[in-house]
Specification:
Chains A, B: One of its GO terms (molecular function) is zinc ion binding. The structure is a homodimer. Chain A has eleven helices and 19 strands. Chain A is α/β, with parallel strands linked by helices. Chain A has two domains: about 200 residues, Medium-chain alcohol dehydrogenases, catalytic domain (Quinone Oxidoreductase, Chain A, domain 1, Alpha-Beta Complex); about 140 residues, NAD(P)-binding Rossmann-like Domain (Rossmann fold), CATH 3.40.50.720. Chains A and B meet through strand 15, strand 16 and strand 17 of A and strand 15, strand 16 and strand 17 of B.
Chain lengths: ~350, ~350
């Protein structure tokens, strides 16, 4: 079959690889219906060494189950499934607690003998724990929103959920990428009345307003902080959902969070050390939370409103490429001519 | 009257100062019955520049109200009161939320025209918001435990409360100082079944066991981390209450916290930058919380068990000095020959 591999920076290729086969009794083979390119794929696309070994790409997909192992009981051949961005056994304490990204036996797609989703098919470890079947006949018009549930919607929701957003909390969302916009949608879902979106791409922030943002701040850095403080009588907001990952975004989060508030990060930090002492977090009792979203934990609760059309997270996709042209999708996202790209095998 | 002042490092003096007078209608004058020396007083005692101006000391005291301003309604002359380590108006949004350390009009003792508690008397701003009256006749045997409520017990409780300790969470407490021991007592109060105390002063850790610690780890650094992991099947504990403030303690906290867990800091950080990226907090969804404890928020709920003798937080005091000999108390704590010192005017 055809599958996407990355070599060095900017070097994404579609290659012939073996069709996946069941390796364990708990596996399933999923024929991919749609996949997508993730903002986090761009890190490797931007800076992977030219001599790095090839790596299978894609961790967000939806598809149809073609084959199941003898120990798969909740998933059936023919099921239309959502494939979250991490696989997990569904039974360990972490999975039971809803922290599937720390599953004792779980992992990420495209590592070891587990392939990626930007391909014709993928082998899913722990099918019962990992895959979420979509009931009924699936309208192709819903594909984008179902794809959003594999990563970006659940990730934005994780940010808002970990920050304990509710109707009494004001919210700043840092970042107008797909995850930031999904954080807006999630904050709205959790009842937030005031949602300030920090982003400077008008097309994206317009979508943010559609998802529930009440204010848009285009300025960055010290100017951006000053603008949010101006909007909040110098207090800042109770919660800050940081969906970027760069140190500048963390510093902005510290600058706009209210005393006693929460900074919730879901952008993968591109830094290790940062200020957390008395001058930044401690003296004002700021809580810092977040991490890789256990999207598997959220799919069942977010799915009904997607199926009913009450929410349309799929609006974050603005380009579709064929699998053969996946490199074009990477380039479009890297150049920011596309917000988020669907890959159609 | 006599009051404690600090000049340079190690230079604590008892001097004659003016007796405090009412300055605002919301003030009260409190005659000090007992005060104490705090671990945080030792920071200035250890490194204050020799040419620094004198600063009034003491932020933990109990006493009797001598005089009240015309706009004081909840506190009466003659009340025996607990004076928490920060004053607060009791009416702003932060006070209403229980974050009195971020009170819009609050502050800390010994700054500006507000004196310190290691003295014969002190003027309390916002008496209604700040002071907590103790009902009935107060048995002097309770003085130590009432003093604990002014800071260390509430601070230990803040650590456990912010970490959301409950009967399902395992706990590591880092530090066997008074606050660490109070964090043990607080974790026990909140239902924790497993409380690992990291400390190497046997007299103190024995007290920790009395307060509820189930395990004691004397090792520090990498060895200490290894020992806690050994005790928890390599997982670490759900919560880590960090009651030291040095960077080494933070690093230990990161090393012993379980995926999805919480590090709750109440030791004032003696560092500003520290690791918070993927390798430390992010990849395992660790939450970092804590800050200066709004002890005022906790006194009413912690007081009944103190009055009934169900808990005895006053056991952390192991030395009493007269006000004239307060310097001896500082020295004893700095040399670690005393755990915590009472000052009797």
């Amino acid at each position: 079959m055809r599958a996407t591999m990355i070599y060095g920076a900017g070097d994404v290729r579609v290659e012939d690889v073996s069709y996946p086969v069941l390796m364990h009794a708990t596996d399933a083979i999923v024929r991919i219906v749609r996949a997508c390119v993730c903002g986090s794929d761009l890190h490797g696309y931007g800076n992977r060494p030219a001599d790095a070994p090839g790596k299978a790409m894609g961790h967000e997909s939806i598809g149809i189950v073609e084959e199941i192992g003898s120990d798969v009981h909740k998933i059936n051949v023919g099921d239309f499934v959502i494939v979250p961005f991490a696989y997990s056994d569904g039974t360990c304490e972490f999975c039971v607690e809803g922290l599937q990204t720390s599953c004792r036996h779980g992992g990420y797609w495209g590592n070891g003998d587990v392939g990626g989703g930007q391909a014709e098919a993928v082998r899913s470890p722990f099918a019962d724990g990992t895959l979420v079947p979509v009931p009924g006949t699936v309208d192709p018009a819903l594909y984008p929103s179902l794809l959003a549930l594999t990563d970006v919607y659940g990730t934005g929701f994780h940010a808002a959920f970990k920050a304990r957003v509710n109707s009494a909390t004001t919210v700043t969302v840092i970042g107008d990428g797909a995850v930031g916009l999904m954080a807006v949608l999630s904050a709205k879902r959790l009842g937030a009345q005031r949602i300030i979106l920090m982003g400077r791409h008008t097309v994206r922030t317009d979508l943010g307003v559609l998802f529930g943002a009440t204010d848009v701040v285009a300025e960055r850095g010290a100017e951006g902080i000053a603008r949010v403080l101006e909007l909040t009588k110098d207090d800042g907001t109770h919660t800050v959902l940081e969906a970027v990952g760069y140190r500048e975004a963390y510093d902005m989060a510290v600058g706009v969070v209210r005393a006693g508030g929460v900074i919730s990060r879901v952008g993968v930090p591109q830094y290790e050390e940062a200020p957390i002492g008395s001058r930044s977090l401690f003296s004002r009792n700021i809580t810092l939370t977040g991490g890789p979203a256990p999207v598997r934990a959220y799919i069942e609760q977010l799915l009904p409103d997607v199926l009913s059309g009450k929410v349309n997270p799929g609006l974050v996709f603005d380009k579709t490429v064929s699998l053969e042209n996946v490199a074009e999708g990477y380039a479009a996202m890297a150049e920011r001519t596309a917000l988020k790209v669907i890959v159609a095998p």
